[in-house]
Amino acid sequence: MAQRLALRRLLSLAPRGPPAPPGRAFGTSAGRRSTFNVQDGSDFQDRVVNSQKPVVVDFHAQWCGPCKILGPRLEKMVAKQEGKVVMAKVDIDDHTDLAIEYEVSAVPTVLAMKNGDVVDKFVGIKDEDQLEAFLKKLIGA
């Protein structure tokens, strides 16, 4: 497991795709800027619990069919919020300790966190209107 985490960290540092043309800012899709994969417990503490922005935490698993539907849908809706909220993805098979700590008993489970506290939660798939309402409640819009 430690080797897998080390490999993930190494791969996350590797440049992807061609270099940016001179004079242009490095570009990524809005979804990539607002979404990240949690690497370990301290990463979760730093980027989720201590976040200045509200955070949507998506507890999921690779083998979970509904997670594969909800994940991209949720990423799209978070990206539409234009930086007012970020999304952390937590694979429960890699981070069982976090799943236990946050009482995740089924996937997908999505938590809304503000100032390190869970302020809302849902389990299962939601449509885009429901996700939009969930996010607006979290950011106070």
TrEMBL record:
<dbReference type="GO" id="GO:0045454">
    <property type="term" value="P:cell redox homeostasis"/>
</dbReference>
<keyword id="KW-0813">Transport</keyword>
<protein>
    <recommendedName>
        <fullName>Thioredoxin, mitochondrial</fullName>
    </recommendedName>
</protein>
<dbReference type="Pfam" id="PF00085">
    <property type="entry name" value="Thioredoxin"/>
</dbReference>
<dbReference type="InterPro" id="IPR005746">
    <property type="entry name" value="Thioredoxin"/>
</dbReference>
<dbReference type="InterPro" id="IPR017937">
    <property type="entry name" value="Thioredoxin_CS"/>
</dbReference>
<dbReference type="InterPro" id="IPR036249">
    <property type="entry name" value="Thioredoxin-like_sf"/>
</dbReference>
<comment type="similarity">
    <text>Belongs to the thioredoxin family.</text>
</comment>
<keyword id="KW-0249">Electron transport</keyword>
<dbReference type="GO" id="GO:0005739">
    <property type="term" value="C:mitochondrion"/>
</dbReference>
<dbReference type="InterPro" id="IPR013766">
    <property type="entry name" value="Thioredoxin_domain"/>
</dbReference>
<dbReference type="GO" id="GO:0015035">
    <property type="term" value="F:protein-disulfide reductase activity"/>
</dbReference>
<keyword id="KW-0676">Redox-active center</keyword>
<feature type="domain" description="Thioredoxin">
    <location>
        <begin position="14"/>
        <end position="140"/>
    </location>
</feature>
<keyword id="KW-1015">Disulfide bond</keyword>
